[in-house]
Specification:
By secondary structure, the chain is an alpha+beta fold. Helix content is 26%, strand content 28%. The strands form three sheets. Strands 5, 6, 7, 8, 9, 10, 13, 14 and 15 form a nine-stranded mixed sheet that branches. Strands 2-3-1-4 form a four-stranded antiparallel sheet, covered by helices on one side. The protein binds 1,3-dihydroxyacetonephosphate and magnesium ion (2 copies). One magnesium ion is lined by residues 13, 16, 20, 54, 93, 96, 231.
Length: 365
């Protein structure tokens, strides 16, 4: 019998220890308790509380479908409880990701980021949750493209008949709130023409040509909503593996090349995305470098089996060393572009407060 399950990954920064480096263990304990109650009440099937850096991720399974009011309310209430504890502890940037103090029907637009997918659980339902800190939504463009469209990364595209039809990409223009669907391999040049600008075009989801969802990412842009930088959105993504999808190893392989993402120190710098075990997901050097953690699961009748901490692997030591080299180089550039974000993106930082008052001192030449 086919079993419909929804996987919801909802995350927020409710307060950091020390600075924006990590979370306090009490926040995870509060979340465990809140979600444990929802599990025994039957609202959710299972859950796992995770974190990367100062971000708290709620990984939930349930049977209510995407965008469900009760599930979103549960996530919202859980973040509020965690934020209340963060406030007692006077953690850094308490409630940083909340755009509202009140829940309305959906958590979308209220600050936390989310990735949700409705699936029919396969005989072997393997998937991975990616979680980044000191990054922004476009961070998944590079790895998702490599995984689902690049035969030099994913040998399955070359040798497995099921994968040869390629994948369909849903790409969002996050600044203009428009979207486009493009098919790979036919459209790979068009896909690349867009997603190379990861601050504008973000891969929202990937599908098989038969209509099975393969990947979904969070695309919330907090700073755009607010018009100013308080914290970065630090995105999450869910990617299904094996069978009609790329193998787990093919999904993890792109992270062996530390690509540059927006979000390092004050959200003002590009930094190399370092794949790490969860225990090493505490960015401190210049509040970074940006981190990514990958938690792998199997699903058994909606129950989460795992996680396996996928980057807890010496196979990624070379990538981490390369990240440190790139970090050394970029840091030496100080406040100069392109290590620092472009003027266009710096609009959302505190830079305009410095530049705007100079306006009256400029003279025509
Ligand atoms: P977060 O988005 O992870 O809270 O980081 C904020 C920041 O500016 C760190 O330097
Ligand atoms: Mg923070
Ligand atoms: Mg963060």
């Amino acid at each position: 019998m086919s079993e419909k399950v929804t996987i919801s990954v909802i995350k927020a920064d409710v307060g950091g220890l020390a600075g924006h480096s990590g979370i306090h263990p009490d926040l995870a304990t509060v979340a465990q308790k809140s979600l444990g109650k929802a599990e025994s009440d039957g609202l959710i099937i299972d859950f796992h509380v995770a974190w990367v850096g100062d971000d708290l991720q709620l990984i939930l399974t349930h049977s209510h479908g995407e965008d469900n009011e009760q599930v979103h309310r549960l996530a919202w209430d859980t973040f509020q409880l965690a934020a209340a504890r963060a406030k007692e502890l006077k953690l850094c940037g308490v409630g940083q990701d909340f755009l509202s103090d009140k829940f309305t029907r959906s958590i979308r637009g209220l600050g936390p980021s989310l990735a949700e997918m409705d699936i029919v659980e396969r005989e072997n339902e393997t998937f991975v949750v990616f979680m980044a800190d000191k990054a922004s939504p476009g961070a998944w463009n590079f790895p998702l493209y490599k995984t689902f469209a690049d035969p030099f990364n994913t040998i399955g595209l070359v040798i497995k008949p099921k994968l040869q039809q390629g994948f369909r990409f849903e790409i969002h223009n996050v600044r203009k709130r428009r979207r486009i669907f493009l098919d790979c391999p036919q459209d790979i040049y068009r896909v690349l023409a867009l997603i190379g600008s990861a601050g504008h075009y973000v891969i929202k989801s990937v599908w098989t040509k038969d209509g099975d969802i393969a990947a979904i990412s969070s695309t919330e842009l907090l700073n755009l909503e607010r018009g100013q930088h308080v914290g970065k959105e630090d995105p999450v993504a869910i990617v299904r593996a094996q069978s009609q999808f790329p193998a787990m190893g093919e999904i993890l392989e792109p992270f062996a090349l530390p690509h540059l993402v927006e979000g390092w120190e004050r959200g003002a710098f590009f930094g190399p995305l370092m794949p790490v075990a969860q225990r090493e997901s505490h960015p401190s050097r210049n509040d970074g470098p940006p981190r990514v953690v990958a938690l792998g699961f199997q699903l058994a009748h909606g129950k989460l089996i795992g996680p396996r901490d996928m980057f807890d692997d010496p196979g990624y030591d070379a990538a981490r060393a390369e990240c440190n080299q790139i970090a050394n180089y970029l840091r030496r550039l100080g406040p100069f572009e392109p290590a620092r974000l472009s003027m266009d993106s710096m609009k959302y930082t505190t830079l305009p407060h410095v530049i705007d008052p100079l306006e009256e001192r400029f003279e025509d030449i």
